[in-house]
Amino acid sequence: MRYLLLIYQDEVAQSQWSGEEQAAEYQDYFAFSVESEKRGVSAGAALMPTNSATTVRVRNGKTLTTDGPFAETKEQLGGYFVLHCNDLDEAIEIAAKIPGARHGSIEIRPVMEIM
C-alpha cells in the first residue's frame, strides 16, 4: 500500500535556525532519503514557504485565488514523502525517522488506489 507522509513544522521557528542547525537538518534529510529510497520511496520533496502558496476555489463558476495556504495553523506543510509500505506499522516506523518529526509532526495518510 502507498502512504503519503506529510511533514508539518513551525515555519517561523525554523526560519530562525542558525546556519549550522539548517545544515544539520539537511544532512539528516539526506540520510533519511538514502535509507528510505531502499524501502521504496516513490516521491518526496520539500515545499517552498507558505508565503509562496496560492489557494484556489471555484464558487458559482468563478475562480477565486487567495495568497497563502487555506488555513492558518501553528505548523505548516513543509514537504512530503510517498512510500510503499506493507502496512501502517511500517509507515509509522519510517515516519518516526523523518527529521521533522523531532520538532514538528508527520501525518500519515493511505493513498486511495483507484482501479
| Count of discrete domains | 1
CATH architecture: 2-Layer Sandwich
Unreliable segments of 5+ consecutive residues: none
Q: Give me the secondary-structure category.
A: alpha+beta
Highest-level CATH class: Alpha Beta
Strand content: 35-45%
Query: What overall geometry do the principal axes of the alpha carbons give?
Result: flat
Walk across the major sheet and give the strand order: 2-5-1-6
Annotated CATH homologous superfamily: Dimeric alpha+beta barrel
Q: How many strands, what sense, and barrel or not for the largest sheet? A: 4 strands, antiparallel
Oligomer: single chain
Count of alpha/pi helices: 3
Under CATH, the topology can be stated as: Alpha-Beta Plaits
Distance between the termini: 13 Å
Q: Mean pLDDT score, rounded?
A: 88
Counted beta strands: 6
Radius of gyration: 16 Å
Please tag this protein with its features.
Alpha-Beta Plaits, 115 residues, two-stranded antiparallel sheet, 6 strands
Structural commentary:
By secondary structure, the protein is α+β, with helices and mostly antiparallel strands. The protein has one domain (2-110): Alpha-Beta Plaits. Helices cover 29% and strands 36% of the residues. The chain is built from three helices and six strands, in the order βααββββαβ. Strands 2-5-1-6 form a four-stranded antiparallel beta sheet. A two-stranded antiparallel sheet has the order 3-4. Strand 3 and strand 4 form a beta hairpin. The longest helix has 20 residues, at 19-38. The protein starts with a strand and ends in a 5-residue tail after the last strand. The model has no long low-confidence stretch (mean pLDDT 88).
